[in-house]
Amino acid sequence: MVERARTQASDKVRFEFEQTFMFYLPRICEHCLNPSCVASCPSGAMYKRAEDGIVLVDQDRCRGWRMCVTGCPYKKVYFNHATGKAEKCTMCYPRIEVGLPTVCSETCVGRLRYLGVVLYDADKVTAAASVRSERDLYEAQLGVFLDPEDAGVRHACDAAGIPYDWVEAARRSPVHALISKYRVALPLHPEYRTMPMVWYIPPLSPVVDVLTETGHDGEDAGNLFGAIDSLRIPLEYLAEMFTAGAIGPVRSSLEKLAAMRSHMRAINLGEEPDPSVSAAVGMGAHEIEEMYRLLAIAKYEDRYVIPTAAVADARHLEESALPQGCSLDYDGGPGMGGDGPVGQDSGRKLLPLVSVENFHALRRRQTADDAAGLPHSPHGPNSRHSQDRGGLMPSFEVLYQAAALCLTYPDDDFRARLPLLREAAPQLREFTDHAALTPPQELAAHYVEVFDLKNRHSLYLSWWRDGDTRQRGMSLLRFKDVYRAHGLELTGEELPDFLPAVLEFAARTGDTDLLLEHRDCLEELRARLTDFGTPYASVLDAVCATLPTAQPGARP
Q1: Spatial CA neighbour of 266 closest among 290, 291, 285
Q2: pLDDT, mean of residues 227-255
Q3: Which of the 8 DSSP states describes residue 490?
Q4: Judging by beta carbons within 10 Å of its beta carbon (0-12, 13-18, 19+), is residue 394 exposed, middle or buried?
Q5: Cα separation of 510 and 166, whole Å?
Q6: Residues 218, 208: contact at Cβ < 8 Å?
Q7: Per-position b or e across 401-423, b if 16+ CB within 10 A of its CB
Q8: Which of 21, 188, 513, 520 is least surrounded, with the fewest CB atoms within 10 Å of its CB?
Q9: Would strands 85-88 and 199-200 be described as parallel, antiparallel, or unpaired?
Q10: Nearest-5° angle of CA 36, CA 42, CA 45?
C-alpha cells in the first residue's frame, strides 16, 4: 500500500514536472563558454565577444548556411528567411553596455532573473569540457570559475588588465553567489559540453504540493528532506536536465531551498529556528538568511549587478550629449540679441546644422570682385571663422554640406533643395540628376534598401572600426568631444558618427580631421556602394576625391 501511494505520488510529480518545463522553463541563448554555434560557423559570422562573453552574429559576414542552427544543441539560433541571415538572442548588449539589464530580466514580473559578472579561467575551458564522464561536467565547470574574493585572483585580474570595477562587480554578483557560493543554481544540459552560462535554480514546489495534498506539512524540513529523497522522479528528472544525470547536486540544491523555507517560516511565525536544519545542508543561519534575501526580497540593484565601468561610460556619453548650461547663457547669445552657438542655425534640432543660405553666399562670392561686398560674419571680428574663412564656406566645404544633404533620407525638404544642390555642387550632379528624375517614393525606398536594412552600407563611421563592441561607445565620445571643442552640439536624433553629421561639421568648421581619421572607412563604404550599383556611390566618390589617399592596409 505504501509503495502504491509512493508510485502514485511519483507519477503525479512526473506529470507536473513535464507540464511545468514544457511551458514555463524560460530559455534564451546560453552564451556558452565553449559555443558550438561559433565553432560550426564556416564564415566566422558567429563570434563570442572577448570583453563580456556575449555571443553575437555578424550580419555582414553571415552567408545563411545555417550550420549554426544545426550546431546549437539548445536550438537558440534561427534562420530569418526575410533577410537570409541567422539571428539569435543578443543579450540586449546595447543595454548591457550602458549599465541596464536585459529586457527579459527587467520586465519579468516574477523577478526571477539575475544578471552579474562571473570570472573564469579561459585556459581551463577546453579541459573542463573534455572530462570523460558527463556527470563530472558540473563540477568541472565550477572549477573553471574564479573566486573574486581570492587575493591571487584579484592580482591576476589586475595583471591581465581587467578593470577594478569589473572585479568589484564580480564580488557583488548575484550569479556568482547562486552558482559558486550557495550552489543552488545549475547549468542546463551540461552534457552538451558547451559550458552554458545561463543557470537555473530547480523548483521545489511540486514536492511541497504533493506533501500538502497527502495531508503532511509541506513546509516542515523533515518532511521535505524525506520527500526529496524518496520521490525519485523529481530528482532523476531534474538531474537529466541540469547535471547530466548526477543526482547529488540536484538533491543538495533542493535541500538548501527546503532548509531556507523551514528556517524563514520559523522566523516569520516568531519561533526560534532549528539550527540543525541549516547545519544539515552545510550552511549557517546567517548564510540561509542571506540566500533568502537574494532569492526572495532582493532589490533591483542586487539582482542586476552590471559593472560600474559600463555605467560610468554611459553617464559620460549621456553627459557629453547635453549642453553644459542653459542654451541662452553665453555672451552674445539669443537672449542678448545675437546668434546662437551655431550662428544663424541656432535652435535647429535636426540636420542640417549649416543653413542653406550659405549656398547663396557662395554664388555671391564667386561673382563678387572682392570680399568687400560680402556679408559680415555673424561670429564677430575676432572670430576664427571670420579671420580664416571670410564668413563663407570654401568650395570643398560646400561639397561636404551638399553631400550631407544627399546622404540623409530624401524627404520633401531634400527635393525642394535639389535645384540648389545641383547648382552649388556640380561634383554631385550624377546623383542629383538621378534624384530629380526618380519618383519620390521610389527614391525613399531605395535609400531604405541601401542604408537601413543592413550594416553592410552603414553610414555610422565608428561601426566600421569597432563593430558592436564596447569600444564603440568611447569612439562616439571622441566625435562628441571634437564637436564640443568647436562650440557645436549635435542635438539631433542621430549618433554623432553619422556621416552626414560629420560632413556638416566639416562644412561648418573647416575641420576635416574626423573625415581623415576615418578615410579608410569611407573608402570601404564607397567600394561597397559601388559594388551594390547605387547612385549614392557617386556621392562618396566626390567626398573621397577631396581627401588624401588612404594608406594601404590601414584597416584589416
Answers
A1: 285
A2: 79
A3: -
A4: middle
A5: 41
A6: yes
A7: bbbbbbbbebeeebeebbebbbe
A8: 513
A9: unpaired
A10: 80
- At residue 83, the 3 state secondary structure works out as coil
What's the pLDDT score for residue 510?
86
What average pLDDT does this structure show over 525-541?
93
Beta bridge partners, 187, equal 199
pLDDT tops 90 at residue 155: yes
Q: Let me know: does 281 contact 228? Beta carbons within 8 Å.
A: no
Cell of 271: 519561533
Cell of 67: 550550420
Strand partners, 304: 115
In terms of residues, how long is the chain? 556
C-alpha cell at 98: 550602458
Residue 500 grid cell? 552626414
At 95 the pLDDT is 84
**Cα 240 to Cα 188: distance, rounded to the nearest angstrom:** 9
Taking phi over 0 as left and psi of -120 to 50 as alpha, with beta for the rest, 380 belongs to left
Distance CA 380, CA 175 (A): 60
Grid cell listed for 313 = 561610460
Q: Does residue 415 carry a pLDDT above 50?
A: yes
State how far the Cα of 514 lies from the Cα of 499, in Å rounded to an integer: 10
**Residue 148's pLDDT is what?**
94
Encoded amino acid at 423, one letter: E
Q: Cβ-count burial of 77 within 10 angstroms (0-12 exposed, 13-18 middle, 19+ buried)?
A: buried
H or E segment to which residue 16 belongs: helix 2-24
Across all residues in the chain, what is the average pLDDT?
78
Q: Please state, in angstroms and rounded to a whole number, the distance separating the CA atoms of residues 146 and 160.
A: 14
The predicted structure's pLDDT at residue 552: 46
Supply the Cα-derived Rg of the chain in whole angstroms.
31
**Of 536, 524, 521, nearest in space to 448 by CA:** 536
Q: Which amino acid, one-letter code, is at 226?
A: G
Burial class (CB in 10 A: 0-12, 13-18, 19+), 452: exposed
Q: Which residues in 192-226 are b (16+ Cβ under 10 Å) and which e? A: bbbbbbbbbbbbbebbbebbeeeebebbbbebbbe
What are the pLDDT digits (tens) for 262-292?
Answer: 898 889 888 898 888 889 889 999 999 999 9
Find residue 56's DSSP bridge partners.
Answer: 47
- Classify 415 as helix, strand or coil: helix
Is the confidence at residue 375, as pLDDT, over 80? Answer: no
Quick count: other Cβ atoms within 10 Å of Cβ 173?
23
In contact, 258 and 225? CB cutoff 8 Å: yes
pTM, rounded to two decimals: 0.56
91: three-class secondary structure by DSSP? coil
Cα–Cα dist 334/197, whole Å: 56
Tell me: pLDDT of 215 over 60: no
pLDDT band at 488 (very low <50, low <70, confident <90, very high): confident
Q: Which among 394, 375, 377 is positioned nearest to 386, based on CA atoms?
A: 377
Question: What cell numbers appear for 252 in the block?
Answer: 543538495
pLDDT over threshold 60, residue 495: yes
34-48, 54-68, 317-331: segment of lowest average pLDDT: 317-331
Amino acid at 453: L
**Phi, psi angle pair for 199, to nearest 5°:** -110, 160
Looking at residue 181, the DSSP 8-state letter turns out to be: I
